[in-house]
């Protein structure tokens, strides 16, 4: 074994099984077994991925055929329903909404609101329920958004207090040197953030991540200035 | 469209950007539809499959990892996997998981060998040329058309076990060649 991380080879049987899977010659039950194994065995999953990359040049055998336009309409209907028009509309993305929300939430209360009910007159999609979960003395609150139609509940950490005062910023803490900013946690994007391209390779197993409380919009200096509210190291699931 | 533009679109889809999703569909669906048609060989089924595939793309965009392969091969693998699953469930084939892998040559590469994946397109083309021409064709057809061992055996008019042995041996030779 080497430590370069480049060794992705497997035993002959694993190589064959992975290759057969990527070629597509296996039966359905065998395909399911391979997929289960990929979930449990990262090394085997890499063997499959390598075959996928190796054989992907065969994709040039597929020409291009434009599907009928009804297909995309159907996809959108199935994913988003009929009524909404754009993912960027709606109060979830509105800063004004979050500001006003903070005025109505008390420090200890769990407040549930229908937000969409006030926004779109007439026909309404199933309105998500939103709750801000907080506790006395805590510097972070959790925002929960429950989508009744899909049963999906999202939790987003936000800085406690008025949103225009504080932001939560996520940092990658290297072995040595100053923490590197990965960005500001924003309620508007459901707790997800896109890691800057130049930082992606630096996040690996064992990396330490930390969240600090910073002035609104993130640290003005590029260095962490506020208190650490949470930290931990990354491990593979 | 450049591969990094497709990658940017996938990353925007991962954070729920529907406009990016519509654009991603516009630029990538002709290729993925062609994959569905080729494997499923039925227009209505291909249209149905394409819907399922883009629903998966929407749901899985956040699992697309930078460095795990090119964005277009990631998309193609979702389309191929879905189409192959569909056709396998339509036409069940004989059980194959318990088969003996008893065909391995002594020439097989050691698993400890170092591998750097660079320029795999040119390398696989070179390695395919090292195979017996009919075996190379069978490998490529299995991939492109999503043929099962049974269908390959029909096409090649050879016993299924022979075809299986050819194909497995071809896979090992390809792997060995690409590690060189």
TrEMBL record, chain A:
- Cell division found in the keyword field: no
Domain Anti-sigma K factor RskA C-terminal: start-end pairs:
106-228
GO molecular function (one): sigma factor antagonist activity
- UniProt keywords, alphabetically: Membrane, Transmembrane, Transmembrane helix
Q: Which InterPro entries match?
A: Anti-sigma-K/W_factor, RskA_C
Membrane-crossing residue ranges in chain numbering = 96-117
Mind telling me which GO cellular component terms the entry cites? plasma membrane
> This chain belongs to which protein, by name?
Anti-sigma factor
Q: What is the lineage of its organism?
A: Bacteria, Pseudomonadati, Pseudomonadota, Alphaproteobacteria, Hyphomicrobiales
From TrEMBL, chain B:
Q: Which SUPFAM superfamilies match?
A: Sigma2 domain of RNA polymerase sigma factors, Sigma3 and sigma4 domains of RNA polymerase sigma factors
- Single GO MF descriptor: sigma factor activity
The keyword Transcription is assigned to this record:
yes
Ordered alphabetically, the record's keywords are: Sigma factor, Transcription, Transcription regulation
Task: Cite the RNA polymerase sigma factor 70 region 4 type domain residue spans from the record.
Answer: 122-174
What is one process in the GO biological process aspect for this record? DNA-templated transcription initiation
| NCBIfam families noted in UniProt | PRK12514.1, sigma70-ECF
The text of the family note is:
Belongs to the sigma-70 factor family. ECF subfamily.
- The molecule here is called Sigma-70 family RNA polymerase sigma factor
- The organism is Rhizobium deserti
């Amino acid at each position: 074994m080497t430590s370069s991380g480049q060794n992705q080879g497997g035993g002959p049987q694993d190589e064959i099984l992975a290759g057969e899977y990527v070629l597509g010659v296996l039966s359905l039950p065998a395909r399911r077994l391979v997929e289960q194994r990929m979930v449990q065995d990262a090394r085997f999953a890499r063997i499959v991925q390598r075959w996928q990359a190796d054989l992907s040049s065969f994709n040039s055998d597929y020409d291009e055929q434009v599907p009928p336009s009804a297909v995309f309409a159907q996809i959108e209907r199935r994913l988003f329903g009929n009524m909404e028009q754009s993912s960027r509309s709606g109060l979830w993305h509105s800063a004004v909404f979050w500001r006003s929300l903070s005025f109505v939430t008390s420090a200890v209360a769990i407040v549930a609101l229908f937000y969409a009910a006030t926004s779109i007159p007439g026909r309404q999609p199933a309105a998500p329920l939103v709750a801000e979960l907080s506790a006395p003395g805590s510097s972070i609150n959790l925002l929960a958004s429950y989508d009744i139609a899909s049963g999906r509940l999202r939790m987003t950490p936000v800085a406690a207090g008025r949103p225009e005062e504080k932001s939560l910023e996520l940092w990658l803490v290297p072995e040595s040197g100053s923490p590197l900013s990965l960005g500001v946690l924003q309620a508007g994007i459901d707790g997800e953030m896109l890691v800057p391209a130049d930082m992606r390779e630096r996040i690996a197993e064992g990396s330490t991540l930390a969240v600090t409380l910073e002035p609104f919009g993130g640290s003005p200096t590029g260095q962490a200035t506020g208190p650490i509210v949470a930290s931990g190291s990354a491990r593979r699931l | 469209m450049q591969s990094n533009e497709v990658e940017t679109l996938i990353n925007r889809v991962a954070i729920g950007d529907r406009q990016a999703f519509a654009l991603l569909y516009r630029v990538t669906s002709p290729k993925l539809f062609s994959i569905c048609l080729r494997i499923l060989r039925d227009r209505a089924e291909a249209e149905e499959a394409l819907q399922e595939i883009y629903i998966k793309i929407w749901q899985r965009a956040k699992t697309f990892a930078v460095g795990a392969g090119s964005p277009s091969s990631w998309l193609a693998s979702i389309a191929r996997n879905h189409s192959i699953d569909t056709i396998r469930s339509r036409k069940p084939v004989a059980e194959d998981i318990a088969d003996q892998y008893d065909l391995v040559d002594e020439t097989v590469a050691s698993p400890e060998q170092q591998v750097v994946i660079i320029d795999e397109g040119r390398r696989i083309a070179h390695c395919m040329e090292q195979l017996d021409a009919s075996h190379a064709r069978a490998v490529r057809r299995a991939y492109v058309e999503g043929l099962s061992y049974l269908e390959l055996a029909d096409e090649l008019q050879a016993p299924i076990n022979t075809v299986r042995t050819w194909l497995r041996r071809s896979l090992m030779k390809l792997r060995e060649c690409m590690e060189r």
